[in-house]
Write a structure and sequence with these properties.
The chain is mainly α. The protein folds into two domains: 77 residues, Orthogonal Bundle (434 Repressor (Amino-terminal Domain)); 41 residues, no CATH class. The protein contains nine helices and no strands. The longest helix has 17 residues.
């Protein structure tokens, strides 16, 4: 898998301030949704200190793009999702959809991964699903050709 490009955060954050409290709450919610992962476990997976991660979740510290990338990888999120939450990148409708899927408490982790995988496959194919599906006429014509 290709590593996402880490954006240059200098002067990019809209309004001059990261949305620290919103970002921290989002990270905490994602951590808890990932099988009630502990703060300590996430800090180990992301290779950052437990106190520093705690401060990020409480909106007290401004994480770098590199730290956000590590947290995203540990939570199995796209780094871009956290960059948008932090205000580093502008929202992209595709990433907003993925974020919404991750936040939906009615879906299991397996269902979330399946939906996101399917969505990304359609995007990569470049054609809407209805344009790629065979019609009844196509299938009937194929059978006639074989006889």
């Amino acid at each position: 898998m290709e590593q996402p490009k880490v954006p240059n955060v200098e002067g990019v954050v809209s309004g001059g301030k990261m949305k620290l409290a919103e970002l921290g709450s989002f990270i905490r919610d994602q951590r808890r949704a990932a099988g009630s992962m502990s703060l300590r476990k996430l800090s180990e997976l992301a290779d950052i200190s437990n106190p520093y991660l705690s401060q990020i979740e409480r909106g007290l510290r401004k994480p770098s793009a590199e730290i956000l990338q590590k947290i995203a990888k540990a939570l199995d999120l796209s780094a871009e999702t956290l960059y948008v939450r932090a205000g580093i990148l502008d929202a992209d409708p595709a990433h907003d959809l993925i974020s919404e899927i991750f936040q939906d408490p009615r879906l299991s982790e397996a269902q979330k991964q399946s939906l996101i995988s399917t969505y990304r496959n359609y995007i990569e194919l470049g054609a809407p699903p209805h344009e790629r599906a065979a019609s009844v006429k196509d299938i009937a014509g194929t059978k006639k050709d074989k006889n």
